[in-house]
């Protein structure tokens, strides 16, 4: 602990004199293992950052953070030879460019956080040298384009976050040679289409977030590559068309979110390949009808959300095979009547939402089989009579 007094004295000196420092006064900070944490530092000029040096013990030193500091460049000494740095966090700084060879000696780097900076583009081999990188976060920057060779040399990365940028297109075979990539977020960008080649080589991917973009169509073959997907998020887009075989290779998918889109119709077989699907969200679309075979192959479903559509009728065959179903929500639609056989096989159903429809009465026996039901929501209907003999 002997180093801490000098570190704190230096930090106090930096804060007290932040307005008078110049690029002619090099800044040297000494860190105590395992973490070097400098948050909220303000530099008088960008060149102050370039002259920043870090002194460390390579046997113990592994984490560096400059969160919420005016760091316009990554100090070259952070990734000096044999530095041993495993985590580098420069979130909320002022970085607008990563200089070539920044990571050439970052052989031990595993976690790199560059969120909420001012990066506008990437370039080929940008992270070359960081061969052990597992997580890369570039969310909330100003990225408009991505070089196809950006990730050359980091074959073992498992998670990449590009959310909250300005991306409109993605290069073909963007993530080629990424056999370990399991989680990818492209949420909250401006993507308008997905090419068949975009995810073609992502065979290990398990989670894909495409929410908050401007997608209108999902064509056949879009997700042929990432056949191990377990979670697919497509909410808050502008989807109007989903081709019948768009999801045909997603045999391991467990969660699918298509809420808040412009869907008016779904092909009857669009979910057929999803034999282990557990949760399906279709709320806030314009669906007026669902074919009775829509969920025919989704026998493992435990949750379906159809809120805020325009569905007037539910055919009993729609959910008759869903014996694992526990949560079913169809609030704020146009239901006028419930078929007495609709829930005949829903013996595990625990929560049922029917709020905000046009139901005038409940036929006797409609809920007779729902012995596990815990919550039933019927507010905002036109009910004049009720039959709850078994509830």
Automatic annotation (TrEMBL):
Gene3D superfamilies: Ribonuclease Inhibitor. The keyword Signal applies. PROSITE patterns: LRR. SMART domains: LRR_TYP. Keywords: Leucine-rich repeat, Repeat, Signal. Pfam families: LRR_1 (PF00560), LRR_8 (PF13855). InterPro entries: Leu-rich_rpt, Leu-rich_rpt_typical-subtyp, LRR_dom_sf, LRR_TM_domain-containing. It comes from the Eukaryota. GO terms for cellular component: plasma membrane. This is Uncharacterized protein. It comes from Anopheles arabiensis (Mosquito). The lineage of its organism: Eukaryota, Metazoa, Ecdysozoa, Arthropoda, Hexapoda.
